[in-house]
């Protein structure tokens, strides 16, 4: 099932407002998206044809073109809701409650982001494969990552102002380095690369890098065993 829009996160330009009942066209468009979401679990988009996508949705080839001009536009449409799920999972990084420690917030967010990324990994894998050749998709991905970076930078600046975070590189530069680090490592996980961090270690590893870079502390487990620097 394609992820549904969450109540927070990056704004999508294609969200329909109002409470009207779905039309036949809406249902057909959703059938294309849901069919593609399932098809891409086992089949790379570059080997999928328009006929494959139309057949999966129970539509003709001409009907497919009424909703999407290319298979890459289908991927474009799926990316927004997936990114919203990742943003929601990252919420504690950006808006940590006052009563929550950085360790608890970062550990929970890292675990949730890894879980969401693993669930949608086949879509994010295809995005990573396509961004180099599809300018529209690359621009969308850059915009999404930019929103994550800006939210993280604002959080770092707030925590530095209150003395919770340690000093370091400019907040946006640090946020960009951390976000792209996470994106690359999670992407390798989705690709099942031999060089990927082991799935059992990736959440702790990402949380550790964030905590030591931003707050100068390790995870709660590392603090208990005396391994934090």
UniProtKB/TrEMBL annotation:
<feature type="region of interest" description="Disordered">
    <location>
        <begin position="1"/>
        <end position="25"/>
    </location>
</feature>
<dbReference type="InterPro" id="IPR049397">
    <property type="entry name" value="EthR_C"/>
</dbReference>
<feature type="DNA-binding region" description="H-T-H motif">
    <location>
        <begin position="49"/>
        <end position="68"/>
    </location>
</feature>
<dbReference type="InterPro" id="IPR050109">
    <property type="entry name" value="HTH-type_TetR-like_transc_reg"/>
</dbReference>
<keyword id="KW-0238">DNA-binding</keyword>
<dbReference type="Pfam" id="PF00440">
    <property type="entry name" value="TetR_N"/>
</dbReference>
<protein>
    <submittedName>
        <fullName>TetR/AcrR family transcriptional regulator</fullName>
    </submittedName>
</protein>
<dbReference type="Pfam" id="PF21313">
    <property type="entry name" value="EthR_C"/>
</dbReference>
<feature type="domain" description="HTH tetR-type">
    <location>
        <begin position="26"/>
        <end position="86"/>
    </location>
</feature>
<feature type="compositionally biased region" description="Basic and acidic residues">
    <location>
        <begin position="13"/>
        <end position="25"/>
    </location>
</feature>
<dbReference type="InterPro" id="IPR001647">
    <property type="entry name" value="HTH_TetR"/>
</dbReference>
